[in-house]
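Structure (tokenized):
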């Protein structure tokens, strides 16, 4: 049987975490796997479900999770949400995967067509990884964060023993041995979350990978994170496939993974701006900021004098529920003619636009990769979780951005924006960003080919 025929006979089951920053790369991976001849089934929650009509080449199957607890759909901190999601989805995921296995077994009795070769589960879904293992299905954990972040998670037991975790005030600026350039203050954190709950969650994620996964798939590329990838492989003694940047390699259109509808009118607005003159501002789909921080951001933008495109999405300000926060009184008048505010933007197209000169970002990994992929320098304002890790790499490892600061203050914001958009520091960062863009563009699909071969080899191997 030819290799291409063998691939067409095999099915891969994918299960994303139901948040924008996780669904998008999972569907990008799905498109790449389908393009290599694999049949792809996406198991998904009914909460934040993807739209199957946008992906006719894929099969979508809801797991019909029980009614999610309030912790998932409320403004609870992300650790509480993730723990609740794992608890709510474990049994429904197991049942849905078992149903696929039974159906595949009946269909392939004669010719072995369409059996499940492997499952790819979002790395935060430790319960689903465990369930796949229990059913005898080889499972890979997709890390939608950086290799550096995942390495940090694997190191948490050691960091706890060494006194770095919980993070102590007197050690905030200490470099973390083995995780340089990270300082203690850059380690994964969720402000307002119970420290024990965070450490317990990270331990569950790491234990699930060590105990239930055949390997990990990371949305990154060797040229930017070779050292972290090598350390992960050494720690786990199993494969770690660097298959990114997925948004550059995937044939899936940019808008197909979106859970929010973008305002495409902003592209025409950008068309009328000078090259590299506009600061694009977006803190992603999940992060929330205090009302005071939001107002300092606004007046910092006003004081910078720079043209800007600002994503002010519903739910951005803590305490406002899912309503769009009102702009400060007088802000629209102060920025008339040089600013545009939208509820959501087609980010990849915005970053690729000739008018965009820099990106004020929360440093979520998707946003970071998309900025790197377009050679756009960054103004870093990490909010929680892995964003502090990514921000440190952006500013001190790759040199393609600068920090807003621990406390967002309008004067410092205006100064930082001016430096990044028009100063010598900004010019140097732009040059480095272009170098990273070249490396990202040179990333090939060879690692993806290795991933497919590995998936197919799992057929008769031990899980």
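Design, position by position:
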């Amino acid at each position: 049987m030819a290799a291409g025929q063998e691939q067409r006979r095999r099915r891969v089951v994918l299960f994303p975490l139901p948040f924008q920053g996780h669904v998008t790369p999972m569907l990008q991976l799905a498109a790449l796997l389908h393009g290599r001849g694999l049949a792809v089934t996406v198991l998904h929650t009914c909460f934040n479900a993807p739209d199957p009509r946008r992906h006719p080449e894929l099969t979508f199957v809801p797991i019909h999770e029980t009614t999610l607890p309030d912790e998932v759909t409320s403004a609870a901190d992300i650790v509480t949400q993730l723990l609740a999601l794992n608890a709510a989805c474990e049994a429904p995921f197991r049942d849905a995967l078992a149903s696929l296995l039974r159906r595949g077994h009946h269909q392939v009795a004669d010719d072995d067509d369409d059996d499940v070769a492997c499952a790819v589960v979002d790395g935060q879904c430790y319960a689903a990884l465990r369930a796949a293992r229990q059913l005898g299905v080889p499972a890979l954990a997709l890390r939608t964060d950086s290799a550096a972040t995942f390495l940090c998670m694997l190191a948490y037991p050691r960091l706890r023993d060494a006194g770095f975790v919980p993070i102590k005030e007197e050690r905030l600026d200490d470099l973390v041995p083995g995780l340089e350039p990270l300082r203690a203050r850059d380690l994964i954190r969720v402000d307002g979350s119970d420290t024990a709950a965070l450490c317990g969650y990270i331990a569950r994620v790491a234990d699930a990978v060590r105990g239930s996964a055949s390997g990990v798939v990371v949305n990154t590329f060797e040229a930017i994170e070779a050292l972290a990838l090598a350390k992960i492989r050494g720690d786990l003694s199993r494969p770690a496939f660097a298959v990114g940047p997925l948004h550059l390699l995937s044939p899936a259109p940019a808008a197909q993974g979106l859970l929010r509808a973008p305002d495409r009118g902003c592209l025409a607005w950008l068309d009328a701006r000078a090259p590299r003159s506009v600061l694009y501002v977006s803190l992603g789909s999940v992060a929330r900021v205090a009302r005071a921080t939001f107002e300092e951001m606004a007046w910092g933008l006003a004081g910078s004098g720079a043209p800007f495109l600002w994503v002010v999405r519903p739910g951005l300000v803590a305490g406002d529920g899912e309503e769009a926060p009102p702009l400060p009184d007088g802000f629209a008048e102060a920025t008339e003619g040089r600013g545009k505010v939208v509820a959501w933007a087609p980010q990849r197209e915005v970053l690729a636009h000739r008018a965009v000169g820099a990106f004020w970002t929360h440093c979520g990994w998707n946003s970071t990769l998309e900025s790197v992929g377009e050679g756009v320098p960054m103004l870093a304002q990490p909010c929680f979780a892995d964003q502090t890790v990514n921000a440190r790499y952006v500013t001190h490892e790759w040199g393609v951005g600068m920090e807003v600061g621990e406390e967002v203050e309008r004067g410092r914001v205006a100064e930082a924006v001016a430096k990044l958009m028009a100063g010598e520091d900004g010019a140097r960062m732009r040059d480095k960003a272009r170098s990273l863009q070249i490396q990202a563009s040179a990333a090939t699909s060879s690692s993806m080919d290795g991933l497919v071969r590995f998936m197919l080899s799992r057929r008769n191997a031990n899980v």
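Reviewer-requested clarification: The chain is about 45% helix and 15% strand. The chain has two domains: 3-244+444-457, 261-442.
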